[in-house]
Amino acid sequence: MPIRLFRRKEEGEKKIKIPEGMWIKCDACLEIIYKPEVERNLNVCPKCNYHFRIPAMERIRAVTDEGTFREFGEELESVDMLSFTDTKKYTDRLKEAKKKTGRKEAVITGTAKINGMDVVLAVLDFEFLGGSMGCVVGEKVTAAAEAAKELSRPFLIYSASGGARMQEGVLSLMQMAKTSAALARLADARLPFISVLTDPTTGGVAASFAMLGDIIVSEPGALIGFAGPRVIEQTIKQKLPEGFQRAEFLLEHGMIDIIVERTRLKPTLTQLLRFMTASSGK
Amino acid sequence: MILQYLDFEKPIIDLENRLEQLRRVDDGTDKNLREEIVKLDKKIGKIRKEIFSNLTRWQITQLARHPNRPYMLDYINHCFKNFLEIHGDRAFRDDPPVVCGFAELEGEKVLVIGQQKGRNTTEKIRRNFGMANPEGYRKALRVMKLAEKFRLPVITFIDTPGAFPGIGAEERGQSEAIARNLLEMARLETPILVVVIGEGGSGGALALGVGDEILMMEYAIYSVISPEGCASILWRDTARAETAAEMMKVTAADLKKFSVVDRIIPEPLGGAHRDHKAAADAVRVAMAESVAGLRSLSVRQLLDRRYAKFRDIGVIRRKTGSNG
Ligand SMILES: [Zn+2]
Questions:
Q1: Would you call B179 and A180 a contact, using CB atoms and an 8 Å cutoff?
Q2: Backbone phi, then psi, for A78, in 5-degree steps?
């Protein structure tokens, strides 16, 4: 279920001297780009439109009305219930992830307004152990879906994840069922659920809440799929087609609704929410 | 069926063959031979007990995948009457790794849905080694809706290494098909009984695994990823699969502890593959009890219990320091 992910930056290209500080090299086109310009552009490469992976909090800032986000569930922390050790202890992996991100887990949940409309949000953070779903991610997403139902508000999830968290064994697998069950209840209450896919959305996260949106929106170029490209290649012993499992490929095959550039995401979500809540309360 | 055996079964099999030989020459006249037979029989019992009471998680993994292990259709033959298979997802094609049909369990009419691995090479290929494509999961969902419509209990059998990782599977939305089943099974208005009979391989298993009661065979496994897959990602070495199986805690006893499984169905000594009928009898009795119990609940009760069951799975820590 969880998969190993590869960035598509070309390794071993000619070494370009990168000036310190203000300039960065794009992962995709390898052009040297001016950092403040990239940041103004919500971390999208101005040369090739590559959407950089960004932390969850930045996504929240980019899409919610200023000062409206209220986090909940931040007190939840993972437990190493299996005493799991691979090349590192799971407890050490958690410590490192916490230090790196300044957060306790791989998802941020809360309430906010988007152009004045109340929503409940869950935003996965790829920087925290690859956005993997363990018990805490499952619990927080479930609690957020339940809160949306309780408050009669639309629910949005931003996915960015390699899948289920192996270090929590079968309990992480069960979070797929748990989150999907909560979404079933939200659907029964006729409340909108918009799923926003970002690079990457794979494995157990793709095979649960990410693919269950009433509307599924994706950033351009995002890797989206159940199995990892390497696993598929090894299984079928065939080269994968160009663009396989990218957002554009999924759109073509009818699996997602819209591809939206990061800079256009807020207005698009606003429009979707207006349509989806048009007759609520009537 | 050719009886195959695992490395750790070999001492038992060797002694059993020896016993078989002795029995063949025994015509009741040789007292010494008689004694030797009795002694050997006892010895076999003792060794088998020793081996099977100290199985490692990796050995249990091998038993769960044993080539002679009863598969879904073996249970259908032994446990049900009037099985009538139905095919297809009404959209793309019929997916042979997933088998669906009407059947009777001790007089109770039910719909069964399960994963079938295939016994010989031709069958294995036809059944895609038990790895379903999206249309397999969609066929299963269609049949579940049928069960809901006619208020028939659903019984699912889980035995898969995982959902098929292929180009077509991705093109046709493997992740959507699995996710859809999780959502729809959570709210299906009829009893769902899940029986893990062999390998419960990740999301491909869970896509048939959301139910009111989860039964698991003593030597079945259920995990978030195959031990080989886990080893390949975390240790970058599939040879560490044994360690991965230990770390992930994949056995029925482990899952019972985590409340993921409600009940363990004991297997005949030596494993289900040594006695299909005895294994199937135990499964039949357990299923009949569960279905009767679930039948007594209202739809509202069923759905509330089912939601609470999955809602409660997980171990987390809150700031206050309490676990739960
Ligand atoms: Zn670029």
A1: yes
A2: -75, 155
Same domain (yes/no): A239, A268: yes
| Mutation choice for B interface testing from A174, A195, A239 by most B CBs within 10 A | A174
A34 and A84 belong to one structural domain: no
How big is the A-B interface in CB pairs under 8 Å? 213
**Ligand 1 midpoint to CA A263 (Å):** 15
- Cβ pair A211:B310 closer than 8 A: no
Nearest CA in chain A to B225: A1
Read off the pTM: 0.94
Task: Report the candidate in B182, B139, B151, B140 with the shortest Cα–Cα distance to residue B294.
Answer: B151
**Is residue A178 domain-shared with residue A258, that is, in the same domain?**
yes
> Which domain range does residue A48 map to?
19-52
Looking at the fold, whether B153 and B36 belong to one and the same domain comes out as no
Residues B42 and B160 in one domain: no
Q: Coil, helix or strand for B160?
A: strand
A33 and A84 co-located in one domain: no
Please give the tally of structural domains in chain B: 2
Q: Which of A201, A222, A97 is nearest to A157 (CA)?
A: A201
Number of folded domains that form chain A = 2
Query: Do residues A148 and A227 share a domain?
Result: yes
pLDDT in tens, A164-209: 999 999 999 999 999 999 999 999 999 999 999 999 999 999 999 9
Task: Say whether the peptide bond before residue A2 is cis (omega within 30 degrees of 0).
Answer: no
| ipTM reported for the complex, 2 dp | 0.95
How many Cβ atoms are within 10 Å of A77's Cβ, its own excluded? 15
Q: A120 with A247, same domain? A: yes
Which residues does chain A have within 8 Å of residue B299's beta carbon, measured at their own beta carbons?
none
Same domain, B41 and B142: no
Q: Which residues of A touch B230 (CB under 8 A)?
A: 166
CB A83 within 8 A of CB A254: no
Contact assessment for residue B57 and residue B32, using Cβ atoms and an 8 Å cutoff: no
Q: How far apart are CA A166 and CA A3, in angstroms?
A: 10
Residues B29-53: tens digit of each pLDDT: 888 899 999 999 999 999 999 999 9
SS3 label, residue B252: helix
Strand pairing report for A193-202 and A155-161: parallel
Residues with CB in 5 Å of ion ligand 1: A 26, 28-29, 45, 47-48, 50
Interface test with B, best of A129, A179, A183, A226 (most B CBs within 10 A): A226
Cα separation values, A39 from A42, A63, A141, A145, A184, Å:
5, 15, 28, 31, 37
Residues B13 and B76 reside in one and the same domain: no
Q: Answer yes or no: do B151 and B259 share one domain.
A: yes
